[in-house]
Design brief:
Helices cover about 70% and strands about 0% of the residues. The protein has five helices and two strands; from the N terminus they run H-H-H-H-E-E-H.
Length: about 180
């Protein structure tokens, strides 16, 4: 691979020194096409599976940021390089599309599941409490008091987290067994 790269560098420099510019343009277009093909492979996977999987959004953000800053840098050159603008804008648009697909196929269903599970939990909690629970001894002016020491809400260590999780699980089991 290194020999191919070195051969292309020497050959393209030699062509440019003789006033022939089409090999440079060909290599630029070829590299842009291969870069776009690499990103389009992700679109095919997204289309087939209807989800964005196996893609690091951190990498996508870094790559899209590089394309954005490269595109911006073109505007500060003495003359505008139209081919460079097209290459960077194409790559940026493709990566932004992957972000949009990730938001549509991954983030929106995640948010919907979270909201649905919260609604379901609140419905189950409302059904589990008898109507008089809002005025019972464990309630002060409509705010339910829970069996949780106040220090655990500020000073959390792994051992207290495990102990609290176990106690809440046991309380839930007792409530389920009692039919509440």
């Amino acid at each position: 691979m290194a020999a191919i790269q070195a051969g292309l560098i020497v050959g393209l420099r030699s062509a440019r020194s003789h006033g022939v510019h089409w090999p440079l343009t060909l290599m630029a277009v070829l590299s842009a096409a291969l870069l776009a093909a690499g990103v389009l492979r992700h679109y095919w996977d997204i289309w087939i599976h209807r989800t964005v999987r196996g893609i690091s959004f951190i990498f996508v953000a870094i790559d899209a940021g590089g394309d954005l800053f490269s595109l911006i840098s073109i505007f500060f050159q003495p003359s505008l390089d139209i081919k460079g603008m097209i290459i960077y804008a194409t790559e940026l648009a493709l990566w932004l599309g992957v972000f949009a697909c990730g938001g549509y196929f991954n983030l929106l269903p995640y948010i919907k599941r979270k909201l649905d599970s919260r609604k379901l939990e609140s419905r189950q909690a409302n059904r589990a409490q008898p109507p008089s629970a809002a005025s019972g001894p464990n309630c002060v002016h409509g705010v339910a008091l829970h069996d949780m020491p106040s220090s655990t809400s500020v000073f959390r260590t792994p051992s207290t987290e495990i102990a609290m999780a176990r106690s809440r699980t046991n309380i839930q089991r007792v409530q389920v067994d009692a039919g509440l």
